[in-house]
Amino acid sequence: MVENLLLGFTVVFQPLPMMALLFGVTVGLIVGALPGLNDNITLAVLIPITFGMDPHVGMMILVGIYCAACYGGSIPAILLKIPGTASSIVTTLDGYPMTLKGEAGKALGIATTSSVFGGLMSSLVLMFIAPFLAHQALKFGPPEYFALTILGISTVAGMAGKSLLKNLIAGVIGLFIAMIGMSPQTGFPRFYFGNNYLLEGIPFVPMLIGLFGITSILELAEHIVKEKDIKHILPKVTRILPTKKMIKRLLPTWITSGTIGNVIGIIPGAGMLMAIYLSYDVAQRRNKDKEFGTGVPEGIASAEAANNAVVASSMVPLLSLGIPGNSASALFIGALMIQGLRPGPSLFVDHPTIAYSIIVGFFVANLFMGPLGILVSKFLATYILRIPRQILSGVIVALCATGAFAISNSIFNVWIMIIFGIIGFVFNKLNIPHSPLILTMVLGTMMERNYLQSMVLSKGSWSIFMQRPLSAVLLLMSLFFFATPFISKLLKKPIITDDIDLNN
Amino acid sequence: MKKILVVLLIGLMVFSVGCTNSAPEEVAEQEADTAVFPENDLKIIVPFDPGGGVDVTCRIIASLAPDALDDKSIIVENVPGGGGVIGQTAGAQADPDGYTVLAYTSSVISNPMTKETVYTHESFAPVAMYCFDPDVLIVPADSPFNTVQELIDYAKENEVTLTTPGNASAHHIAGMILEDKTGVKFSYIHNDGAAMQIAQIMGGHVDCGLMTLGEAVSQIQEGSLKSLGIMSDERAADLPDLQTFQEQGLDIMYGAWRGLAVPVDTPDDRVEALGEIFEKIIDNDQFKTKMAEAGIPMIYRGPEEFKAYVDQQAENLKIILPKITANQ
Fold first, then answer.
1. Is the pLDDT of residue B231 over 90?
2. Best of B190, B225, B325 to disrupt the A interface by mutation (most A CBs within 10 Å)?
C-alpha cells in the first residue's frame, strides 16, 4: 500500500507530470471561473489532446482540471452572484452578500481554504480507504437512493430564505420540471410537445446558466435603464488568507461538510448538488445564532468544502469497481479506454503506476490549488469588479451562450438558457429563491426513477422503504429535517403574540 | 434604451453561436463539387455524450485518420439528446456530400420505431461497420445460478428482476428476445446507463442484467460479476470459458453494433470512397490493438454487407418492438 503510494508520488513528482498537473489546475481554475463553461465541457474537449500523450502525463491534466474547476466556480459566485459551475450554486447564497459588504477578499479566502481542505480530505479517503468504502456504497439500491433523494429534498424546508412558503413553491416547480421527458420506467414521453429535444427532460446546465447568468444580466440591464449610472462596489482586497481565528472557527464546519461530501461522492450517481445542499443545511442547523444568506462565512465554507470533497471521492467507485460516480468521472473512463486501459481494480494490478499516480495526482492538485487560487482570486477580485458592468455583462452573455451551445452543439440549449433567464428574473421580482427549484429538479428525476424501481422490486408495496434499515434511517432523518423548520416556527409564534399582548 | 439593450444582447448571443456553427458548413459547401475527395476534414456526429462506448471508438478512429486521409483529420462532434434522436436527426439532415458521417448504431433502427422521428434507418447509406459487442447475461458473483437454463428454470416459478440501461434500449430488447424464446417473464428495472446496472448487480439488488461484453468484461475477469452466457456465435477471446447461448441450446445472437453511415442521398462514388477510407483505418493494426486493449470486440463489414446486416436487424426488431410499445 505505502510502497505503491510512494510509487505514485515518484511518478507525479517528475517534471512532465508535474507540469501537466499545474497546467490542468490552471486551466481548471480559469474554466471554472468563466460562467457558462464547466469541467465536463473542458474535459471532453481536452481528452482527445491526451491521446498522443504518455498516459501518466495526460491523466494529470485531467485530474488538475477536475479538481480546480469545481473550486474556480466559486470566484464568480462570490464576486458576481453567478456560479461558474453548478457546484458553486450554494456559494452564491452567502458569498455575494459578503462582496456587497465589501468583504470579497475574505469570502474568496474562505472559499479557497475550504476547497483545499475538502479536496485534501477526499484525496486521503481515495488513497487509504477507497476499496472498503466503494463496497459499502454498493449497499445503496433503489430504495436507499429514493430515501436519499427525499433527504436531499427535505432540506428545501430549512433553506435560507425569508419565506418557507416561497421555498416550497420553488421546490414544487422544480419537481414539475423534473417530470418533463420520458418516464424512466416505461419510456413514455411526457410534456414534450412533440419536441425530441425534450425527450430527456430540460437540459440542466443550460437551465442553470440561464437562471444565474442571464438573470443577473437582465437585472443589471434593468438597473442601468432605471438609474443610468451604476455605482461600483470596490472592495479593498487586502488580505485573502483567513486569520487563524477564522480557521479555528471554520474547522468544525469543514470537517462535517467534508465528511458529507465524501459520503455522497462515493455513492455513484448521488451527485455534487446533493452534497452542497445537505452540508449547507447541516451547517445552518449547527449555527442557529447566525442568519445564513446574509454573508455568513460558514455558509461559504460548508458548500466549498463539500463540493471539493466530492471530486476525489467520486473517483472511488471508478477506481475500485470500474463504475463511474458522475459524468466527469465517466469521462475519465473514456480517457483511460482510449489509452488502452480499463478502469477498475485490475488497473491497480496491471498498471499500478497509472492507478496510483491518479490517486496521488488528486492530492497534489489540491496543494497546487491553494496558492494558485489565492493568486487568481486576488487578481480577479481586484480587476473584475473594476470593469464597467455594461462591458462585463456583454462578455458574460457571450460566454453563457457559448457554454449553453457547446454542451450538445445545439441552439435549442441557448433557447432554454434565455427562457430560464427570464424565469429567474420573474422569480427574483416575486422574491422566490432559485435554489429549491434547482435542487428538486435534479433530485426529482432520480427520485422518480428509484421510486419506480423500488416498486418493481417490492411488487408495489411501500413497506420496502421501511424494511431496509438504511432507507428507513434516511427517511426518518428527512422527516426530522423537514419538520424542524415548521416546529420551530410553531414554537416561536406564541412568543410573538405574547409580546404584542404585553405591548397592548 | 431598453429595446436597444435587448436587441444587442440577443444579437450578441446569435453572433457567438453563429461563429461556432457556420465555418464547417461553408467549407463543406465549397468542397462539394470538387473532384478530389476528401479535400477537407471529415466530421463524425456522435449522437451520445462524450466518454461512452460509441464516442470512445469514434475517437480511436479519428486518432488514426491522418494516415488514411492524407493528413486530413476527422473531427468528432457530440450531439447528445433524446436517446440519440437529436444527433441522428442531424446526421440524416446533413449535406449529402460525404463530409458529415453519423456514428450509426443499433438505436438508429429502434428510435424511429418507438419515438417520433423524421428519419428511419433507411435514411442512411451504411459505410462501414467496425464493432459488434455481444450481449452478456450477468448475475452477482455469489448468485446461485451458473447457466442460463438454471436462471430460466427459476424464472418459470419465481419473479426474476433484470436490469437494463433503459426502456426500449438494445438490452431491453435482448431481454424480450430471451422471454420470447423461453416463455418466461422478467421484471425489468430500467436505468440510464451501464454504470448503475453494474452497481445494482454487484450490490445484489437485482437478480440479473443484460449489457454488452465490453461494458462488463473487466468485472467478469476480476470475478466481481458472473456471466451466464454470451449472445454471439463463438466464445469471446477475453473470456474463453464463457459459453454462448447457442451452446446452451438457445439460438440467440444479439448485441450492440456500431458503424458509420452518411445520408442516403450521398453520391455512390462518395460512399465508395468513404468505405475505402474507413476500411483502411479499421484494417490498421493500430486500430485493432487499441480496440483490443480497450476490451471492445471488433469486426469489419463493408458498405453492402453492412446494409444487408442492418436490414436484417430491422426486420427482426419489427417483430419484437411492438411488444414493448404495447406495454407503455
1. yes
2. B190
The mean pLDDT value for A443-453 works out to 94
CA angle B298, B302, B308 (to 5 degrees): 100
Check: CB of residue A187 under 8 Å from CB of residue B115: no
Partner-chain residue, chosen from B81, B203, B222, that has the shortest CB–CB distance to A408: B81
pLDDT in tens, A283-303: 998 998 888 889 999 999 999
3-state helix, strand, coil in chain A (%, to 5): 75, 0, 20
Rounded average pLDDT over B158-183? 92
Binned at pLDDT 50, 70 and 90, residue A161 comes out as low
Other CB atoms closer than 10 Å to residue A461's CB: what's the count? 11
Q: What is the pLDDT of residue A417?
A: 95
| pLDDT value at B11 more than 80 | no
Give the number of other Cβ atoms within 10 Å of residue A467's Cβ: 12
ipTM over 0.95: no
Structural domain containing residue A344: 2-503
| pLDDT above 70 for A494 | no
Domain ranges of chain B: 37-132+256-327, 134-254
Query: In which element (H, E) is residue B140 found?
Result: strand B124-140
Question: What's residue B140's pLDDT?
Answer: 97
Yes or no, beta carbons of B78 and A408 under 8 Å apart: yes
Q: Residue A231's pLDDT is what?
A: 56
What residues of A are in contact with residue B224 (Cβ under 8 Å)? 321, 345
Chain A residues 46-65 with CB within 8 Å of chain B: 47-48, 51-52
Cα gap B175→A186, rounded to integer Å? 15
Taking contacts as CB-CB distances below 8 angstroms, the residues of chain A near B202 are: 138, 321, 323
The span from the CA of B305 to the CA of B313, in Å, is 12
At the fourth CATH level, the homologous superfamily of domain B37-132+256-327 is Bordetella uptake gene, domain 1 (3.40.190.150)
Please list, in sequence order, all residues whose beta carbon lies within 8 angstroms of the beta carbon of residue A261, skipping any fewer than 6 positions away.
A118, A121, A122, A275, A276, A279, A305, A306, A307, A308, A309, A310, A313
Torsion of Cα atoms, B233 then B239 then B243 then B245, to 10°: -50
Determine contact, residues A37/A335, Cβ cutoff 8 Å.
no
Residue A358 has pLDDT above 90, yes or no: yes
Domain B134-254: CATH architecture, name and number where available: 3-Layer(aba) Sandwich (3.40)
Q: Which of A320, A350, A409, A450 should be substituted to probe chain B, the one whose Cβ sees the most B Cβ atoms within 10 Å?
A: A409
